[in-house]
Write a structure and sequence with these properties.
heterodimer; A: alpha/beta; Peroxisomal Thiolase, Chain A, domain 1; two-stranded antiparallel ribbon; 18% strand; B: 163 residues; mainly beta; five-stranded antiparallel sheet; 10 strands; extended
């Protein structure tokens, strides 16, 4: 990147299926205030504000207009981004680029979604004749198909998906900002949940949540003045796929494989689970988490289930993945990809609290996933 | 201490119908006409990378960004199931966004001429569903120019092509 960039403030809100006690600007403001408090800054210190969500998923539009008050963007430059599931990460990456360019020194970026309202699944199914969304049944159908294929191609069983879910819940139960904190103990606890679309049970898939996340991004000079614990943005990558392929699973090369290969090459990463200390990945389903281990080269193809079986990705494990509880526990979708970056930053700072991983985190990776399998990756470091 | 009464939070309920008139463009439009009038699938071959643009043929190839010419190819409506699933819950009506009854199994079919198509399967018995099963499109008697909705579902035409 042109100039060095650091994350100097992280703000998270409570997440729940319904949050009738706040409206959108109020919820966005919770995250913005939390990030400002974390950085010990005031809104006057912020030069530009970005807001990020998926219009339509909660039945709204023009959020950049009516979130001016809550986001603190009155009379400031900025923009609203909207890229699908990746949007929270796209909003963070845009802020990184604004600061890296040298045009801005301190930028606030906020991801948010209030999914109690509107009809996410209806929106996913309705739009765009010819894209066959009327058949796919939103994200659930697409990930269910990929799961069937994963079971056929590997030795993974339903129990492995249950192990992924229990791992997520263990993290979520230690994370005060997680939505679902269920106290799951055994694979039977997961097996009791009803089938949505075979083989995905209710607990195999991410929830719909209401919540927000904010990051404050600063230039090197400012970052060193603002905080003793800047989290440096080492690199980032974004890769898009086409709609005409098998979107999830399948035999074709995935956007995750291309994105991680590029990121690793540029940063001298030859053995990801040795050279990176932990990851926060965007896993819409238990099965997709196993795919992601493979697509990010954490293990060989068709061996993701084995990493789960060995407990390698637990909080205390050799290579922790999603100690926060991940997307399976918490999914205000416009915030989701940004939360991955926020959680990875907290792990590097050592500020993740109860879900701080055992391994010392000097380098962390955060991924985003959206629409026809778009991938974002952000590589964070304690020092550059 | 007396307990504070719980505050009532007001939510305003709104139901809105949003009409669309979706322009398919000349290329996907031609495919949709072909499906409606002749119960045929067609794609357009990219002059650059030679891949067949389908299920949404457009003026530009998404893979290599070459402008397409006029190299239309007919695609057989037979193929192999590469992914499938079975809905255990009511599914969404794409026209209203509201729930309707449980639907047929969903499948990703690799057509014999290469491209993929996503659609329903006629076979509802989960025991009889498997990856690699051979299927063929069953067309609605009267096409309506609604693209893939002019196909009713895909019917099993034989056992696995490979295992």
């Amino acid at each position: 990147m042109a100039n060095r960039v650091a994350i100097v403030g992280v703000g998270l809100t409570r997440q729940a299926a319904r949050r009738p006690e706040v409206n959108d600007p109020e919820m966005v403001n919770e995250a913005a205030r939390a990030a400002l408090a974390d950085a010990q800054l005031e809104i006057k210190d912020i030069e530009a504000v970005l807001t990020n969500c998926i219009d339509g998923f909660d039945g709204i539009h023009l959020t950049d207009h009516w979130l001016v008050d809550g986001s603190g963007s009155y009379m400031k430059p900025g923009m609203k981004l909207h890229t699908g599931g990746t949007v929270g990460a796209t909003g963070a990456i845009a802020a990184f680029n604004m600061v890296a360019s040298g045009l801005f020194d301190v930028v606030l970026t906020i991801g948010h979604q209030k999914q109690e309202r509107g009809n996410t699944m209806g929106t996913l199914c309705a739009a765009a004749p010819g894209e066959m969304r009327e058949f796919v049944q939103g994200a659930i159908g697409a990930f269910a198909q990929a799961a069937v294929q994963y079971m056929a191609n590997t030795e993974a069983k339903l129990e492995h998906a249950a192990m992924v879910r229990i791992k997520a819940d263990r993290g979520a139960c230690r994370n005060p900002y997680a939505h679902l904190r269920l106290g799951l103990k055994t694979p039977e606890d997961v097996a009791k949940s009803p089938i949505l679309i075979w083989p995905l049970r209710l607990l195999d898939f991410c929830p719909q949540s209401c919540g927000a996340c904010a990051l404050i991004v600063a230039s090197e000079e400012k970052a060193k003045k603002i905080t003793d614990k800047p989290v440096w943005v080492a690199d980032h990558e974004t890769v898009h796929e086409l709609q005409s392929e098998v979107v999830f699973g399948g035999e074709e090369e995935k956007s995750q494989e291309v994105a991680s290969r590029r990121l690793y090459k540029r940063n001298g990463i030859t053995n990801p689970i040795r050279d990176i200390d932990m990851a926060e990945v965007y896993e819409p389903s238990t099965w997709e988490e196993m795919y992601l281990y493979e697509h990010f080269h954490f293990c060989e193809r068709n061996m993701g289930w084995k990493m789960v079986e060995k407990g390698m990705t637990e909080i205390e494990g050799k290579f922790p993945v999603n100690p926060s509880g991940g997307v399976l526990a918490t999914n205000a979708i416009g915030a989701t990809a940004m939360i991955r970056i926020a959680e990875a930053a907290l792990q590097i700072r050592g500020d993740a609290g109860e879900h701080q991983v055992t391994r010392d985190v000097k380098t962390a990776m955060a991924s985003g996933l959206g629409g026809t399998n778009w991938t974002t990756l952000v590589l964070l470091k304690r020092s550059l | 201490m007396t307990e504070k009464p719980e505050e009532e939070f007001i939510g305003v309920n709104i139901v809105s119908d949003i009409p669309y008139d979706w322009a398919m463009g000349p290329y996907s439009g031609r495919l949709f006409r072909e499906m409606r009038d002749n119960k045929k699938l067609i794609g357009i071959r990219c002059p650059g990378c030679k891949r067949i643009l389908f299920p949404l043929p457009e003026a530009v190839c998404g893979w290599c960004n070459t402008k397409v010419a006029d190299d239309w190819v007919e695609l057989r409506d037979t193929g192999t199931v590469v992914q499938y699933t079975v809905a255990g819950m009511p599914v969404f009506d794409n026209r209203t966004g509201r729930l309707k009854g449980a639907e047929r199994p969903l499948a990703n079919v690799k057509l014999d001429d290469g491209p993929y198509i996503m659609h329903w399967l006629e076979e509802k018995d989960p025991e009889k569903l498997k990856l690699g099963m051979r299927v063929q499109a069953v067309w609605k008697e009267q096409g309506r120019g609604r693209g893939y909705e002019d196909i009713l579902y895909f019917r099993t035409i034989g056992e696995s092509s490979n295992d």
